[in-house]
Design goal:
Length: 132
């Protein structure tokens, strides 16, 4: 009877599959961490942009319709709305009937403390007359 010859793995190859598996698992975990950090940074930047948009809209409303904003000054109103959205108002400019704001919002990415900056401009539609 012919029996197939048993192949003996070389001694230096023994356990190499385990090491390779562990390396692949470590790489997958590292890649997952990088993707999670990138997603958190993107989310933080989107939240900063939302805060800027809302602050600009609130300030523009206070500029063009003071009664609706309770008599608040445009930049004061924009700063309050930015603060309500965990952002800091860094700049507020009035250009005619438009309000331009720049805000910053802290990003907590584990050990890294970064800041997301955003800007927005709001005002009445080009053909719309201000409320007076």
């Amino acid at each position: 009877m012919n029996q197939p010859a048993k192949s003996k793995a070389r001694s230096w190859e023994q356990g190499s599959g385990t090491v390779l598996s562990l390396a692949l698992i470590a790489l997958a975990l590292l890649l997952s961490g990088v993707i999670a950090l990138a997603a958190a940074a993107y989310s933080g930047a989107a939240k900063a942009q939302s805060a800027a948009d809302l602050a600009a809209l609130a300030g523009a409303q206070a500029l063009n319709d003071p009664l609706a904003a309770g008599g608040a000054q445009p930049c004061q109103q924009a700063g309050k709305v930015a603060s309500d959205n965990q952002a800091s108002l860094k700049q507020c400019l009035i250009e005619g009937q438009d309000l331009i704001v720049r805000v910053s919002r802290p990003l907590n990415l584990g050990p890294w403390q970064l800041v997301a900056n955003a800007a927005a401009k709001a005002g009445p539609a080009p053909n719309q007359q201000p409320y007076h």
